[in-house]
Amino acid sequence: MFQTLRNRHFFFSDLFLLPLAVYASYVLRLERFALENSFWMGLLVFALCATAVTTATFRLGGVYSRYWRYASVDEMLLLMGAVSVATFVSGAVSFLLLWLLPVNWVLPRSIPLIYLLLALAVTAVPRLAVRTWTIYERRTQQGLNMQRVLIMGAGDAGSMMAREMLQTVRLRMTPVGFVDDDPAKQGMRIHGIPVLGGREDIPALVNQFDTRQVIIALPTAPGKVVREIASICEKARVQTKIIPGIYELLDGTVSVNQLRDVDIEDLLRREAVQTDITAVQTLLHGKRVLITGGGGSIGSELCRQVLRCDPAELVIVGHGENSVFTIYHELRRLFPGAAKITPVIADVRFAERITAVLQRHRPQVVFHAAAHKHVPLMEMNPGEAITNNVQGTRNLLAAAQAADVQHFVMISTDKAVNPTSIMGASKRAAELLVHQAAKVTGRPYVAVRFGNVLGSRGSVVLTFRQQIAAGGPVTVTHPDMKRFFMTIPEAVQLVLQAATIGNGGEAFVLDMGEPVKIIDLARDLIELSGLEVGRDIDIELTGMRPGEKLFEELFVPGEDYRRTTHEKIFLAANASGLVPHDLMALVDALVAAAEREDVSGIYRGLQNLIPEFGPVRDTVVGNGKQEASEAVVGTAVPSQPVYVQS
Question: How far apart are CA 173 and CA 360, in angstroms?
Fold first, then answer.
């Protein structure tokens, strides 16, 4: 009915209704319909002024450029403001004319005030009629196979989700109600949609309203809450969708297009971390930033978040051309007006090449994310771990010092603490090199440790999904094995935050919450796939692989750790004090052994460099940090991998 209405129709409506509002103002003021000539002349002057000024104000203020089928509070506030300004101006002009011209025109002083209320009514009612009809039309579309949904969360995200469904018929989704655990919201209405109860009411509401889907609109909810809601929905046999977590919604916007199935990242989600965006933007704005490993999981997310801070240039360094190509073109698409983005294919193991790259681009901030990180694979290829993770870091640090880099952040791992694997030991050696460079330069060259990253390449989650897709079994090495987990956006935000508070030589450790049992992770993934453990997919236990520990640790023995000004970041301030005095000589010997493929020499070199390196039987938790327990006596050189079926 109203689909063909345009703003020109509202313009003609205003031309007709605004003079009537002026006449009605006189009638209300004088309490009679018949007016004397003196009142008629005053009415005519004010009507002409009010109509001309109001329509002009609407034009200048953008009232005639709004799409009133989807009007909201913003449009109504704009209309109120425009009418108020127009009434003030037209009243002032009318009184001025009456004062300047020697005529017998009467304009009572209360007329503009009465007119203001009537003008708001006659301009708002036609526009609200269009909006009301649109809502009515939208809600009568129920017979068009509309999917009936419940929205869990009556906050900002849920409100935006409901509004988009109401406004967009092609989505074929109609919200029948909200669900929220806040008693103050229950019984209220949002966009005309009732808040029907709490999460425990979902099964009954699903049956009552024949609901096909529940949308979890809680971007800041911790994983425990998401897990409980997902479990309730599973028992109610209703499809569950979720909006991304707060780390994925960096711009704060929520759309139906962002809906996805509940994933393992949602079940492990922690409470939102408050990031000091201003400090990060101050550090990176207008700077030249270089990221090694820029095509990898962590590196590519670093690129996305760094570009949001408007650097002068972003240099993406990577060894694999396909990954660099992919992230480069993604960034050009996502940030068309962004700073200069330069892709560079280079291997950190080649000192001359890396030095040339840094001399050409002269970065002021370097994030070093390039590394070999697969524990079992590096056990089989120890020379590659050393040349890439240790020698590559030394090459990059030397080039950074020569290029006068102001900030240097190396992405490390919790496996570098009391390492039992080649990968962990190589990252610990790289940390020592960063601390040494910080002592030499006096600049904020720091290392940041965190645990397993969900969704990264080689993540156990990807392995489990592949095993589930193949029909199982899902293999877990040990029933008590635990790991710390973070999402990629969360890890990168905290890395950027750590970069702003580093002074040099520190090791920053990110608070990853409680460690998660790998076997629980496997069960969750099987259930999220709509399958049942033991009936559809089996979980099989295998022996622990070389280099693995039951528990990961956070701090090296001797490190004095404490919380920083950021609640989610720990600091080991004395990390640089643990650097051996003959570090460079020890690294030289280690790299030389790696280059000649001397495996025994590599292990001897690592033990000389890192005395705590060696297999451990188990670890225990004490006083808020992980501590190594009894070491296994014997050589640290592992045998070939042996997989034991339990």
Answer: 54
